[in-house]
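TL;DR need structure tokens for one chain.
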Amino acid sequence: MPARLLEGYPVAEEILRDLREQLDAIVTQSSQRLGVAVLLPADAGAQSYARAIHKTLAPLGIEIRTISLDDSIDEERFREIVTRLNQQADVTGILALQPLPHNLPRWLPALTIAPEKDVDGITPLNVGRLHLGLPAIPPSTPAGAMELLRYYGIAVSGRRAVVVGRSPVVGRPLVSLLLSADATVTVCHRKTADLAEVTRTAELLFVAAGSPGLIGPEMVRPGAVVVDFGVNVVGERLVGDVDPAVAEVASALTPVPGGTGPVTNAVLARNLVTLARLQRS
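>> reply
TL;DR here they are.
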């Protein structure tokens, strides 16, 4: 029996429905709309993500300011841009999309964005609070995955979870969220020996490797729940890190596109509302 598709749109709509009244109240109290600054590199995947963010946030009345990062930008110029945004009252949150231009270290946004404007939970303050199990702004992509599981009634506590990918914005924070939900977690990465042997142990399999079709059906435990974070541009199509044929083995699978993406954007909007409340208090 083919896997149940874990569509992200109804989950996102539930989150956004709860946010609309909160947004109206914030704007009424402050007479100022929320705004997010998106630092956008010249990468096809990042630009696709930016379009999706605009599609979600603009109807909520959130102002989106896009700052293009060309390949010639250096670290000093990047710091100047972020410092200016940190100081602007009409910028509620700042989001730096990856991959950054090759001149910039991946960690740079985490050390330059002010914690009070960290809409995607990447600064050391938010990362540390998340790892300690304290209230924090969570990275929107792994937090969105947890919302998907909640919405579809998929239990996490006591189950064996395998996370493929250890990036600071998906894999690592997802481990913290899963541990907080009492899962038993294994992390895989490019140095993992016999990846398939490990992934076949997963009751809950999360894939965020940035490698199209990395996980095939032979690598999945029958009946597993598979969450695919992959956003890979192949030709003119968006494809995931999981081969669609996995649907013949798994009990549930997120589609690409239309799975984790819409929920990620909704959680991003929720994070922005949280930042606005913190800034106004």
